[in-house]
Amino acid sequence: MGDQVDNVYELPMEGLNTSNHEYSIPINVWNDKLTDLYEASRTRDKLFVLLTVIQLICLSLAVAFIVLHFNDQIVGEHGQKGEQRRQREAGKSLTCSIDWVQFMGSCYYFQFKDDKPWDAAKDDCHGKGGFLVKIDNAVENWFLKTYIKTDSPYSVWIGAHDSQQESNFIWESDNSALTYTDWHQGEPSNRYNNENCVHMRESSDYTWNDYPCSSTESYICEKQ
After folding, report:
1. How many structural domains comprise the chain?
2. How many CB atoms lie within 10 A of CB 52?
3. Alpha-carbon distance 96 to 82, whole Å?
4. How many CB atoms lie within 10 A of CB 152?
5. CATH classification of the domain holding 112
6. SS3 state of residue 88
7. Which alpha helices (DSSP H) does the chain contain, by range?
8. Which is the most buried residue in 12, 25, 128, 133, by most CB within 10 A?
9. β-pair partners for 198
10. pLDDT tens digits for 2-43?
11. Among 223, 214, 222, 224, which Cα is nearest to 120's?
């Protein structure tokens, strides 16, 4: 019926790594089945052609399963390594020096015996490798108030101040704005026009109050 046509069924499958043992077996069988299909089509054996096509479909599914399984193994290994790395990072323990108290991700130094003005307290915290405490949330504030009440000092300096711009309170540790506050009712008031530093005051259940920075107070240092 015309010129002889090349046997397209005998063309090998390409694009897969046939050196991989898991791939090479089904691919070799695939090529053999293609050859059988070609021979059957020449002899017009319809039943054999049908059976061969079914076998090819099954082989296709088998190859797809192997590829997916292999990819899942790779992803799984990387995912497992990532999870192990996260667990190692989470497992790193915070070690606080002697006289420091650990809570969550910070160490705290409570100085209730040697009162200082705010600037001197800040310098002492820096000398200890930390900063005047920065209170980020209600949980941390609760912890500090609870600990303070075990000794009940008159008042305690924290790291907030508005010495750079009136009513614009920031933390001395990183100059960031306050995102959590626990002001006593009516505070901050700048009552004496020089209340630029913040302390926790006993008479108001250790809620926050602005106060002159020159006053000598107890204080809390923090380091992370």
Report:
1. 1
2. 22
3. 28
4. 9
5. 3.10.100.10
6. helix
7. 21-43, 46-90, 118-127, 138-148
8. 133
9. 210
10. 444 444 334 444 444 444 444 455 556 656 656 665 665 555
11. 214
